[in-house]
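Handout, section B. The chain below has 278 residues.
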Amino acid sequence: MASVPTCCPPGSHGAAPRADQGSLRGENVRLSSSSGEFDMYVSRPGPGELVREGQCLIFLPDIFGVDSGRTKVICDTFAAQGYTVVLPDVQKYGGIPSPDTFSWKVMALPSLSSFMWNNSRSVFMPRLQQAVLPFVRNEFGATDIALLCFCWGCYPMTCLLEQQESDIRCAVGFHPSLLVSRFYWENRQKQLAAVQVPMLFLSGKNDPSDVMPNGLADKAMQKKPFAKDCKFKLYKDMVHGWVNRGDLEQPDIATAYKASLDDATEFLAKMMPVAEKE
């Protein structure tokens, strides 16, 4: 068995409680696939807000699950920009326990190993391909889809990108982790070689070099015909997890959080430039 990699490098922001405090605009829908039933959070533009017809963002969670920190708040933020946003629970039993819990302190390695075995391709790919993609296409008329991820979510994101779905236009990684594939003895270079859409990766100073500027992913994208559309940016004063788990009471994190969402907003608008309407 491969050694268990860590999605979150030492010094990262830890698990964070759900940050919405009951103010979320979206709702859960129940979907079914060959790997089981699961919930998907759906957030859409509100009355009077711009609507980006046919555009859908699929968010993939970090290792702590769909309720990790500001994950759903960020979904709502992009919905307010006119996107239909979905956050499927692609993890079989949810995210791993918080490192602050007794079970994590006693069973850290077994918990992480169990999470990895329970969340292989055989779990999340049927959910994405059999349920999520058909749902957004049929129910929302999605014709332009972007994938966005936090941390662990980079693994299902790259696995889905390997399939080269024709309506997926781009991918965004907030402090993404490419290390998960090593647990399954998969080749990251081969995965990245299969990617056929532009990528935006935002990394912190303690993230692995493979997701940083001029790292493994960046070099793979430099070989693509769309290389000029890709962007790899290092937030040199931030650590892994700042976007959805960092403390916004700290001014530097709050500033970097806003800048990160602005980076993604600009990238998405460039990659999916359809007309907006009321």
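Note. Residues 1-5, 101-107 have pLDDT under 50 and may be disordered. Compare this with the example in section A.
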